[in-house]
Design goal:
It is a single chain. This protein is of the alpha/beta class. It is built from 3 helices and 3 strands; from the N terminus they run E-H-E-E-H-H. It is elongated, with a radius of gyration of 17 Å. About 15% of the residues are buried.
């Protein structure tokens, strides 16, 4: 904010939502890259992590893998939440025994 910018692009998955709100309160436009925050008032550009992880899980099962693993980063990010959900759904549809 010290630099009087008109907008920021945030790529950090761990930046607190309060920081985003601080930018917005000061009239600085915010674009989140590869993450989103519901009802934040900022724009976001991200891939469909849910569908991608679901496709990966399905692919592993189609190739005969019986114990695929999901390794993630911080569990409180939109990216991890969406990926885990998609991966789990693929394994459930494939009747795969798994634990997280």
């Amino acid at each position: 904010m010290e630099y009087s910018v008109e907008g920021v692009i945030i790529t950090d998955a761990l930046l607190a939502s309060s920081a985003v709100q601080r930018f917005l309160r000061n009239g600085i436009s915010v674009v989140l890259f590869n993450r989103y925050i519901y009802f934040s008032g900022c724009s976001a550009v991200y891939c469909d992590n849910y569908s991608a992880a679901k496709k990966i899980g399905s692919y592993l099962l189609e190739k005969g893998h019986q114990k695929p693993a999901f390794i993630s980063g911080p569990t409180n990010t939109s990216t991890t939440i969406d990926r885990e959900k998609g991966f789990k759904e693929a394994l459930l549809r494939g009747n795969c025994n798994f634990s997280f």
